[in-house]
Amino acid sequence: MSNNISRIILHIDMDYFFAQCEEREHPEIKGKPVVICVYSGRGGDSGAVSTSNYEARKLGVKAGIPIYRAKKLAPDAVFLPVNMELYRSISDEVMEILRSYCERFEQESVDEAFCELTGKVSDFDEAKLLAARIKDEIKQRTGLTCSAGVAPNKLVAKIASDFQKPDGLTVVRPDEILRFLSSLKITDLIGVGKKTSERLNELGVKTIGDLSKLSKDDLIREFGQAKGAWLKQASQGIDDSQVEEREGTEQIGRIITLKENTRELKVILDAVDKLSEDVYRKLETRKLSFKSVSFIAISTDLKTRTKSRTLGAPAKDFETLKSTAHELAKAFLNEHHFLLRRVGVRVANLAGEKEQKTLGEF
Ligand code: DGT
Ligand code: CA
Ligand code: CA
C-alpha cells in the first residue's frame, strides 16, 4: 500500500439533465417522451438530439441521433430546442448546494461535479448517509433528481455515479473496487474512447477485468508509454488525481421568492439589494473578484430568464455589483411584461487574489 491516506470522493451527475430542466419548466410535459434538439439552423428538422428523457430513451431516442429519426421513433414526443440559459441557472442552484457540503469542489460540466468529503465524514457509511442527504436537498430545492457515486478516487466515483441511473446512489469501498470494475465494459472507463476500445476488442479484451489481466509492458507496447501505463492503473481503479476547483467555471448566485408576484420596481430593487449583499458577502469571504453580473427572473409560470452583462474589467466592490444588478433589473422589466415570482443575482468569471496579483504584476 502507498502512504496515501484513504480519500472519500463524491461524484454527482444530474439525470437526463436538459430534459429534466424542461420538465421542471413545463410540468404538463412530464410523463411524455421529451426530446431536446440542437437545430442546425439549416431549416426544418435538420440537426441532432442533445438529450432525451427516459420515456423517449425507451423508444430508442438518444443523444446524437438526427432529429428526423427521433421524430420517426417517437412521433408523439415533445420536441424542444436547447435553452442553455435555463440549464445554466438550474445548474448554478445545484452547484451551490453541492459546494456547501464539501471540503473541495470541482465542477466538471454543466451537470456534473466532484466533492471531496474526506474531512467531512469519517468512513464510507457516513459518506453514504451524507450523499443521500445531498441528493434529498437537491431534490427538495431544485426539484431535480441526480445520481451519486462515492469512492476513494475520482475515476471510480464517476463510474459509480453512472452505475445505477436515474436517481441512483452507489458506494464503492476501497476493498470493493476490483470486484466492482471487473464485469464493467472497458468503455465505462472514462478516458477509453472508440479507437482504444476497438483495438482492445481485437485483443479479446471486453471488460475492465480482462484489461487488468494484461501486463503493463504489453499495454505500453500497444498504446505507448503514457496511455499504456494509464490503462494499467485505471483497470485496477487506481487514480491519484485531486479534486480541484476549476478557475473560470465558478459562479455565485442567490435566488429568493418574492412575498407576492410583482413587477413593481421598488420591491424588485429592494430584493436585488438584499441578494447583492448576500452574493457580495460570499465574494468577500473568499476574496474573489467578478467580471460578469446577471439578473435572474422566474415568472409565475416558473419560466427562468436572465439578463447579463460582462464588465470591462474585473471588479470586487459592492457598489459595482449593486448598481450593475439594478441596471439589469430595470432593463429586464422594460423588456418583459410578466409578473415575477422569484428573482436572483449571480456573478461569474470569478478570480482569486493570486490570479489578480499575477495579472497585475505584468
Ligand atoms: P444521464 O446523465 O444519462 O441521465 O443523461 P444526461 O442527459 O444528463 O446526459 P449527460 O450527463 O451525458 O449530459 C448532460 C447534458 O449534456 C445533457 O442533458 C445534454 C448535453 N449533452 C449530452 N450529450 C450531448 C450531445 O451529444 N450533444 C449535445 N449537443 N448535447 C449533449
Ligand atoms: Ca447527466
Ligand atoms: Ca454528465
From TrEMBL:
Catalytic activity: DNA(n) + a 2'-deoxyribonucleoside 5'-triphosphate = DNA(n+1) + diphosphate
Example of a GO MF term: DNA-directed DNA polymerase activity
Cofactor note: Binds 2 magnesium ions per subunit.
Enzyme Commission number, as recorded: 2.7.7.7
Cofactor: Mg(2+)
Residues annotated as transmembrane: none
EC class name: transferase
Active site residues per record: 112
A GO-annotated cellular component: cytoplasm
Residue numbers marked as site, Substrate discrimination: 18
Record GO biological process: DNA repair; DNA-templated DNA replication; error-prone translesion synthesis
Matching SUPFAM superfamilies: DNA/RNA polymerases (SSF56672), Lesion bypass DNA polymerase (Y-family), little finger domain (SSF100879)
Localization of this protein: Cytoplasm
Protein family: Belongs to the DNA polymerase type-Y family.
Subunit structure, as described in the record: Monomer.
Function in brief: Poorly processive, error-prone DNA polymerase involved in untargeted mutagenesis. Copies undamaged DNA at stalled replication forks, which arise in vivo from mismatched or misaligned primer ends. These misaligned primers can be extended by PolIV. Exhibits no 3'-5' exonuclease (proofreading) activity. May be involved in translesional synthesis.
NCBIfam families: PRK01216.1 (NF002292), PRK02406.1 (NF002677)
Name under which the protein is recorded: DNA polymerase IV
Source organism (scientific name): Candidatus Methanoperedens nitratireducens
Name of encoding gene: dbh
